[in-house]
Known about the structure:
The protein is an alpha+beta fold. The chain has helices at residues 36-39, 114-141, 190-193, 197-200, 208-222, 236-250, 265-268, 284-290, 302-319, 324-329; strands at residues 2-9, 22-23, 33-34, 51-59, 65-69, 71-73, 95-99, 102-106, 143-151, 161-168, 176-180, 229-233, 259-263. The chain contains ten helices and 13 strands. The strands form four sheets. The protein has a five-stranded mixed β-sheet with strand order 11-10-9-12-13, sandwiched between helices. A three-stranded antiparallel β-sheet has the order 1-4-5, with no helix packed on it.
Amino acid sequence: xxxKFLLFQDPKLSIPxxxxxKLLLQTMPLVGVWSExxxxxxxxxxxxxxxxxxxxxxxxxxxxxxxxxxxxxxxxGAKVEGNQPQSQSEKSCDIRxxxxxxxxxxxTNIGVTKKHVDELKAYQYYDIQKKHVEKKDSLRLATIFVxxxxxxxxxxxxxxxxxxxxxxLGGGKNSTFQTLVNPERYVPNAEIHGISNHMVNRPxxxxxxxxxxxxxxxxxxxxQDGTPVLWIAHNGRRFDVPFIIKEFSRCFVEIPSDxxxxxxxxxxxxxVKPDGSKLASSSLGxxxxxxxxxxxxxxxxxxxxxxxxxxxxxxxxxxxxxxVSGLLERSFKASDIPE
Length: 339
């Protein structure tokens, strides 16, 4: 038989971490408390600690619960004998667990080295600071937008954008941008994306030439000083980016020189499943299913696809061990796309 319990740290405890404890069954109904992490620590300066035992239950070797009950912790402390005379601090202690049907008392001497605790504090602080700095350094490399478009067809020369959406991966307020776009022409493929002719060809829906200055201003407001803007889209090199370039060209506006683009389709083709095989499909829908990401909104709507790709991108970069610098190395410029 064995017993298990929940152990929580007293809020006034000077030790900044909760130690694991175990109950080992002896001949008594409830057994003593042993802290395996504190057991091997020895001290040069005394520290008093206290815990609160909330609940216990006893189980047989096959896992069948035999009894449960409440227990009350009367006191717990530490007797510490320092190695150096000036750092000695003693306080005797005992652990007494009072049960509903009996009592069990055990005294345990626990030693904690202040130097060791300070080292743990320093390590934890360093680890947190290191991760924080690494994240900030990564974000300083680029301002990253995931984006998607919906169009009236597949040809950049004869078809037009009818919806545009993006998400700033830096997060924060107003980190998304979404709008329908008036193509000033009939929409023949509403069955694909669900955007009808009536939804976009009406007053109040901006044309692309109306949208360009708003988009440029939005990007500038989000861009970190001195960093390029990295635009990420799935199958972006063959579809999304050429459409964007063409729409800018029609408005006689150049793509800013510090805008870079990344296509996640080649990344998806590098994904290897646990069994060593490649994915049967590298489509965004297949990636969403592979990573178990729930569908947010309707598929083939710009903002829904942006949300999906943002989550897929996190998983892919983790699997491929790609930092932001690695994404930048795989990026391309608008001038790299043939007209």
